[in-house]
Amino acid sequence: MVHVIYLAIILILIGIIYFLFQKQQKIKSRAEEQIEQSQNETSATISETENRIKEESETKIKHIMTENSATIAGIEESYEKKLGRYEELIAYLRGTQRSEKTFAVYQNLTAIRKILVQSKRISARQMAFAGNIIVPARAGGSDFSRADIILLLPTGLYLLDTRKYKGKVFHGISPEHAQGFERLIKENIPSLANGSEETLVMSGDRKQRDGNQDFLRITIDCYSDLAAPIMQAVPEFRAYLGNRQVNAERIVPVLYFMDDSADHAKAENFSEKEWPLICLNQNDLYQMISQELDREEWIFTAEKLLKIKRLFSEFKE
After folding, report:
1. If you write DSSP's letter for every residue of 212-266 in order, what string do you get?
2. 163-175 pLDDT per residue, tens
3. Are 201 and 167 in contact (CB under 8 A)?
């Protein structure tokens, strides 16, 4: 009888354990279903949210682009202009590196200004200069006009084309004014036309023959129409300033032969043309400036000279 009771209790316990196991499996299965359903719902919600945010963002961006299209176009145009300015500035900086020749002219002009200021001819602000100035040609494109030095005085703007040669310089030789140079011209410039001018540079250096005897070798270089570049630059500089509301009718071209010899006899001028003005040495340059300051009409104030100098210093379109 006792055995029967024990067996019954064991069976009841086994039944309870089985029931609990089945219930746990059902709960686990239901939980997994709910988790999967929740994941699917969450995934769908995330996807919908992403799509909604994307659509809203695209709509807002289109709205912003529409409302600010003019501003954006202006920014793009401004950027392109700045990029162009930077490229021009790089080219300008490359062209404004001071050469030894330019530095020497600066020294000459600084010395002349000091004399004029001390003699009370001008104030220091009434004479300014800048080197290696480049302006775009009126036709646009890649063409430029250049001046080695611009000299600013109350009497006008002076474009200096500086030349420095090793040897004796004869400037302005022409068929009409070739006395004493007929044979030299015939041998070196057989096709010299009427009205044209040549610049001859005669240099010599000593050589040694095989027998150790020295001899002097003479070299003659010919330069046709040396004044043409600075003459052609005058209307370009005038147009450049005119486009910036600066009336600079008096722009004077100057051809300056730098002469560092003691006797100032390295260059001679035979030209009879009115323009450009010819300066054969530093003393000629001083005399030219002094004579210009003697003119009765002073057209530029010190403030106007400073403005013009800034226009050339700040490379603008």
Report:
1. S-EEEEEEEEEEESTTHHHHHHHHHHHHHHHTTT-----EEEEEEE---SSS--S
2. 988 888 989 887 6
3. yes
